[in-house]
Amino acid sequence: MGSGTWSTNVYDAAASYRKATGASAFAHSDSGARQVHEALDPLNAFRESRDGDDHPESLAIAVLFDVTGSMRTVPRALQTKLPNLLGLLQRKGYATDPQILFGAIGDATCDRAPLQVGQFESDNRMDDDLGRILLEGGGGGQMTESYELALYFMARHTATDCWEKRRKRGYLFLMGDELAYAKVKKAEVKRIIGDELKADIPIAEIIRELTERWDVYYIIPAGTFHGDDPKLTEFWRGLLGQNVLFLDDLDAVCETVALTVGLAEDAIDLHEGLDHLAEVGSTAGAAVSRALSPLDRGAVARTSAPLDLGDDLPRGTTRL
Amino acid sequence: MNHGHTIVVDLGYGDAGKGTVVDWLCAREGVRPVRAVVRFNGGAQAAHNVVTPDGRHHTFAQFGSGTFTPGVRTHLSRFMMVDPLALASEADHLRALGVPDALERLTVEGDALLTTPYHRAANRARELARGAARHGSCGMGVGETARYALAHPDAPRVADCLSPSRLRRALTALRTRVLEEFPLAEVPPVEDCVAAFTGFASAVEIVGDPYLRRLLAEGPVVFEGAQGVLLDELHGFHPYTTWSTTTFANALELLDGADAFRLGVVRKYATRHGHGPFVTEDPDLAFPEPHNTAHVWQGAFRRGHFDAIALRYALRASGGADALAVTHADAPDVHLCTAYKGFDTLPVHADLTAQESLTRALLTERPVYTGKVSSPADAAAALGLPLVLESHGPAHTDKKALSLI
To answer: Which residues of A touch B91 (CB under 8 A)?
Structure first.
């Protein structure tokens, strides 16, 4: 029974937590790890989303988020929210047999972990991959991260039954607040993914290749360092058209992803989706509605054809 | 008996010894080791006393009472009201007792409500305003946490600690509302709370909904109740109740169909902390009480004879238990109450108005004593439950298991 045995002094508690270095959601990161967990290492790796007996209609969904410093507390918040994604997709039949892959993006020019990619999973095992993600917190300070490496990996190192058997594209969600480098650099690909390329690949070209098999969305969370910079929106709109979404409430990340899939799968329209959210008692409706209004049925980009990108891309600075 | 999940619930007014029973369940050898203790109601006002065989004593408030056993985790479920400030000092004390990794063995569900200094200030202001008509609140702000969340959907939750801006918004709204109602309440600045609460978020593992399902699949889990069934928000004697569901219900909901053994805990005699009906109360029962003293917010610690009427009512109100554990088996004999002057059984309602009139009747009821409780077996027989455990002292080595539990 109650007696308030323990002190509730706010200053002592703050000091105590500063001293304590408990494990956290990112156990791998917070255990002092300094390198990519082997399960997430993209070197010579290949990721497959395949049909199975209990999931005959597999649909590949990949969520990759920026884990560098400019994202502030966003990666940790995502880690607690994303485990709910699978249930949300299944409950309302937005996707029959979703298979989810989680990954993280850093900066190949200066980070320990430029790219981390989990496996496609049909059950909660994808949460384990989330826990293995190394949080960088560094980044180059240039407003540029190695998204192009992630795009390259997803384009050339994944295979999905939804495409091969049913000609259905998977969904790729990138979350971050930075630009990509203008080219996929062959030296980085060699070092980080292991492929021998003859030449660098311009980012517009890898996007074209990627969008043959993937619907690609870029989500910009509020509260990040560069989230409000118009340069950021212009850059990604130039590559992905209207598939650039703003998320002003991180709590709504799963709902945003789930409803985007539901809309594109023609399972629902935005109105129905928001009703579903209200039914399950989610308070994310308003934020999701704002994020997704450009994608309401009839407006969803079915081809994701990138705009013709000349040579006017911002250039990342290559540091030695 | 099972070697799976167990739910431990106090059938009376609290203080029966749930902590010592949970400690024993986790410390046992020769059975599948318990993976975690899950809290499923109440908050930091719980005070579950555990003493180790080598004499170390800790009052478990938010950490599970199995924490002295290395490797046993604590999970604070979405039904728990989490107080990060009290949690820090509790972790410090455990560290001082030679348990350095309590925080590392802790997971907290992001949806759980937060108890803050603002709730505490409102709780105390409200209780002071009641004067003599006090309900026996603990002054920890737990009831206020529940009350505020019912009225305000933007009540701060554990997951908010991951986002300073969201946390700031929720705490500012809360502080403003408390000061509107109680202009003289002493409350710290929001920024000071933000610093402590974000520290909490970086020191503990905040998890989502699927975590518990995995935990239940990994090994036996013990669900540790707080308070007692006779204080239940719906079935307790209104208004002398707590703002939480103290029956097995929340635990069963978290188990989501998984099997569990429902273990009721009682003392050999009756106790009550604070105000409210207590038909078998007897001020002459001066048994020693090392860990429960009169409390500035709750009032006196009261003792009485074994009340089979109230406990049978608790069993009916909570849908029954599978077995009984009896603590304080070494206490002197007490009377067995099998009826009140005006009641042979107490009616179960789920309606506060009916509960209130029941409370009024109980405040003046007199007990009818028909025998003695001299052993735990007498207590179990009076309640018609199999007796599986008796406790003769504070440590897990003072327990005697009467069947495979």
So the answer is: 16, 20
